[in-house]
Design a protein that fits this description.
The structure is a single chain. The chain is mainly beta and 678 residues long. Helix content is 8%, strand content 48%.
């Protein structure tokens, strides 16, 4: 699926958090796809219903609060150990590195009270929690080419219905017990017939338990695995560079329950974490079926994997042929040591595929891992000294190729925060599910240095800036030579009162890409600059009504051979009256770009637990509205309708998703029923 009043992300009809929006926009821009991981939203929703007790919580309880730095978390526990229980939430102001902004962010999710007895606590696990049942359906209303027969004898490419259907059941008691299951059918996939004769194309089930004797964590079924700073594997939602310049550290539990719609990037098996005072020992095992392009080596008469697929789409006959056709076995463990200021872990992961991975003979594939078995290990650490927090990880694969990452977060004084991060990943280091704080999507073939500042000269003014310079020692996809680049951001936020918030952002990035020159028989590689300028305003007209507006300009390769420009402008209105069952929001947008290279990403509000971040290119208009109605305290419905209109276009989309016409309309309907709990 974060800073500034994270409670606001929990209701799609409330004014969302602008920092979270930028983080998700940047993530989509880097990966060129939207994440389906809504686990972070689910965590915050549960914490909003059942806040954690600041007087009895542990450091692990703080891990969902990604808007807090490790420095703030460490200082909180040092303060509580020294002075005892808190009498009020606002006592947090006395803790070094905590300010009013941090307190406002965490306030909806915490409480101050006395401890609950273990007997009562354990007895409540199975009857004191809440049950939630969610049903969601999504559909494009215009007919797409994949649903049309070319002739009387040729069936449509998409044999299933155009609806996407998602169902999820979940039981949660605080953060101590969680179990549930889900089913997901993508648009175009069959349902209870053909290739999906058992109903949904994807099923997931999980059981997750915390704090039973020495068992600190136990996962059975589907879970995500998160190690250190992501050099080995990190499968939970994680952000990269954004205006939140202090959010450079990966921090979440070693493994977490998985119950999102994404059909890849998770483990299926069992994991356990045992505690022995300051020490803990964890082990995990998993066997999943992954989808892959499998080809035949005619000389050796053997099958091999050319690429692993992660989009989860199994509509056409070709996609169905690649559906979960490779077994992936995962085994590993971790040994950890933790004190008040210091923690360290030694980690090991082994992957085994049922078929060898042999990539296409492209230059950027020549030195990366190929084969059936991959073993990697790492050591990670973190240490807090006064107002400085340092962390890092060093990893090595079975070829003894290394990757390392080291960072620092410091609160220089009440008005200035500082962060920096150094990374160095060998050109032939490889990991299957790595997700570190890097420029590339995988932590390989990259050296770089990042530094960020957050300065608050006045209570109403904030300046955030970062600079990141990096090198790629070997060729990459679409870059046929070693290259380097730089990324710089400057954002000024003005918030004089609770009604008005405005920010202006300038981002400049220069990175190398191949350029196909028609007069040459080979590809040239050029350093391409790209600049974004954004102005964003939010004004709260009344307690129930908020207005927002954004203008953004994009310049790609300004003055160069591939020069493009883009522009986007939108206005939002949010209506959320207190103690009323009805709320809604709506947007009107205009965009105009010279091409795909000057595309602009824009976060869109959606139904609860869902979000949309489309990339806009060409010339057109976009509009949508979301409505939420709480029929009862336990029963809520959402409806969303969105439409894109490009007057000069003859078609929308491409391939089997192409629409004959200049507009595309989609709707989403969701129902949530909750019961139990208090």
């Amino acid at each position: 699926m974060v800073a500034c009043l994270a409670c606001q992300v929990l209701k799609a009809q409330e004014v969302p958090n602008t920092t979270l929006e930028q983080q998700l926009e940047n993530l989509s821009e880097a990966t060129e796809e939207e994440t389906e991981d809504d686990s972070y939203y689910q965590q915050l929703q549960e914490l909003r219903k059942r806040p954690i007790n600041l007087n009895t919580c542990s450091e692990l309880d703080f891990q969902p609060f990604r808007f807090l730095t490790d420095l703030q978390i460490k200082n909180f526990f040092l303060y509580r150990d020294l002075l005892g229980k808190l009498l009020s939430i606002y006592e947090l102001q006395a803790i070094p590195s905590w300010d009013v902004d941090a307190i406002n962010r965490i306030k909806p999710f915490v409480s101050v009270g006395s401890a609950v007895g273990m007997v009562e606590d354990f007895g409540q696990r199975f009857n004191g929690g809440s049950h939630t049942l969610l049903f969601r359906v999504t559909q494009v209303l215009e007919q797409q080419q994949g649903y049309v027969s070319k002739n009387d004898t040729t069936p449509p490419a998409y044999p299933g219905s155009p609806q996407r259907i998602f169902v999820r059941y979940k039981y949660v008691y605080k953060n101590l017990l969680q179990f549930g299951m889900l089913g997901d059918k993508d648009a175009g996939e069959q349902f209870f017939k053909g290739a999906q004769k058992y109903g949904f194309d994807f099923y997931s089930i999980h059981l997750f338990v915390r704090n039973i004797g020495r068992i600190r964590h136990l996962a059975i079924g589907d879970y995500s695995l998160n190690i250190g700073q992501g050099l080995l594997t990190y499968q939970s939602l994680a952000f990269r560079k954004s205006v939140d310049v202090m959010n450079i550290k990966r921090q979440t539990e070693f493994f977490r329950p998985y119950n999102s719609a994404g059909e890849s990037n998770f483990q299926r098996g069992a994991a356990i974490n045992l505690g022995f005072g300051k020490w803990s020992v964890a082990a995990f095992v998993s066997k999943t079926k992954v989808s892959a392009n499998v080809n035949r080596d005619t000389l050796e008469s053997e099958d091999f994997i050319s690429s692993i697929l992660d989009n989860g789409l199994h509509r056409t006959s070709a996609e169905q042929e690649n559906r979960r056709n490779v077994d992936q076995f995962t085994l590993g463990g971790r040994v950890s040591y933790r004190t008040g200021r210091f923690q360290s872990s030694a980690n090991l992961v082994h992957y085994s595929l049922s078929k060898p991975l042999l990539r296409a003979p492209e230059p950027h594939n020549q030195i990366v891992f190929q084969g059936m078995k991959l073993t990697s290990g790492s050591v990670d650490y973190a240490y807090t000294w006064r107002n400085v927090h340092v962390f890092g990880e060093v990893a090595a694969d079975q070829k003894w190729s290394f990757a390392q990452l080291h960072g620092l977060i410091a609160s220089l004084n009440q008005r200035v925060d500082f962060s920096m991060l150094y990374r160095n990943m060998s050109k032939d280091y490889y990991t299957l599910y790595g997700n570190a704080f890097t420029e590339c999507t995988s932590p390989i073939n990259e050296n770089g240095f990042y530094t960020g500042f957050s300065i608050k000269p006045f209570s109403f003014l904030r300046l955030d800036a970062y600079a990141d310079v990096y090198k790629f020692p070997w060729v990459r996809y679409r870059v046929d030579r070693p290259s380097e680049g730089g990324d710089f951001l400057l954002q000024l936020t003005y918030k004089p009162n609770k009604q008005l918030e405005m920010y202006m952002r300038l981002r400049n990035e220069t990175k190398a890409y191949n350029y196909s020159n028609t007069t040459q028989p080979y590809k040239e590689t050029e350093d391409i600059p790209r600049q974004n300028w954004r102005t964003h305003i939010s004004y709260r007209v009344s307690p129930a009504v908020t207005l927002r507006a954004r203008a953004e300009v994009m310049r790609y390769d300004r003055g160069g051979k591939q020069s493009e420009q883009g522009f986007l402008l939108y206005t939002d209105v949010f209506y959320k009256p207190m103690m009323k069952p009805l709320s809604f929001n709506a947007r009107l947008q205009y965009f105009e770009t010279d091409g795909y290279n000057s595309r602009i990403y824009s976060y869109e509000n959606d139904v609860l637990y869902s979000f949309t971040i489309p990339a806009f290119s060409g010339k057109g208009y976009r509009g949508y509205f979301n409505i939420n109605y709480d029929i009862t305290r336990n029963f809520s419905v959402w409806f969303r309708l969105a439409r894109t209109l490009q007057p000069d276009a003859e078609t929308m989309g491409s391939g089997n998703d192409m629409i004959q016409g200049n507009h595309r309309t989609d709707y989403r309907f969701q129902v949530i029923y909750s019961f139990g709990g208090r």
